[in-house]
Fold this protein.
Amino acid sequence: MKPHDSITQRIENENARFAIKGVLTLEAGRGALPTVAIRNEHASATIYLHGAHVAHFQPKSKGPVLWMSDWSWFEAGKPVRGGVPLCWPWFGPHAADPKLPGHGFARLVEWKLAETAQIPDGRTRVRFALTPADVEASPVAALLKAFPHAFELAFTVTVGASLEMELAVRNTGTAAFSFEEALHSYFAVGDVRDVRVRGLGGVKYLDRMQGLKECTQEADEVVFEGETDRVYLNAQSTCEIVDPKLERCIAVAKERSNATVVWNPHKAKAKAMPDFGDKEWPGMVCIETANVGASAVTLKPGETHAMKAILALK
Ligand code: TA6
């Protein structure tokens, strides 16, 4: 069977189980990867089963909220550059083995589509699931050696005028484990050099541009004058991306997240990344909903932790 036929057959089978007439279908996306395509009265969205990756979110009669590189890979075992990568069970370089892929394995493997539903207020809800068996069956099975624990992940996306994403982790094993996590959201902006981010004034952060030196956000607003890569600690507030060029403001609210990561690669780093166009960096900013470092999460057997992000145009 030719690869195209297999994806066509795969999509037909999944549509038979999960399609919602006039609202949700499974379709082949970039790289012929299966996607969940949602078009409801409030918004449209596209979510790849690969990484349970939200690649597109656009409220009705508005512009796209999320940014996606034209140079992104769309291949099993590789991260997607844009949308909302799921970073789990570690963030950034692996503490013990920096040779491992950054940001863990959750964004590198195909998740199972578990449930779709149209809820009474017109929003559409989709739930994806991941267990060690799914990772074992992927091109990056070896990464389980870096996280030898029993877990169940559930990622639930609710598409309305706002986009709600919840990453729930359950310890299904017999010993406690700790993990880091981030909803690594890439937002589309007119020009990052004009953008200001509110909500982090006075908050301490680790500045990756200064070797993770601890600093304090003195100004009320974060501005972007060069490569900016900061992990704001003990940060629970809603952030607002003020974008004068697109004449809009994006609110990034959250629940059960104690860290916020702010990133723009600027010119040099963008040029150094093969999956990031040299001239794309002014068009994006990352505001990431996270629990990393001191806010890493520890679960005893049977415990669950769920972190939520809510993205909305103000
Ligand atoms: O967003 C913060 C960060 O950790 C940056 O240091 C940069 O590496 C970015 O994530 C992208 O990481 P990736 O592995 O997707 O290239």
User: Anything to note?
Assistant: The pocket of 6-O-phosphono-beta-D-tagatofuranose is lined by residues 79, 92, 102-103, 184, 208, 229, 261, 263, 286, 288 (CB under 6 Å).
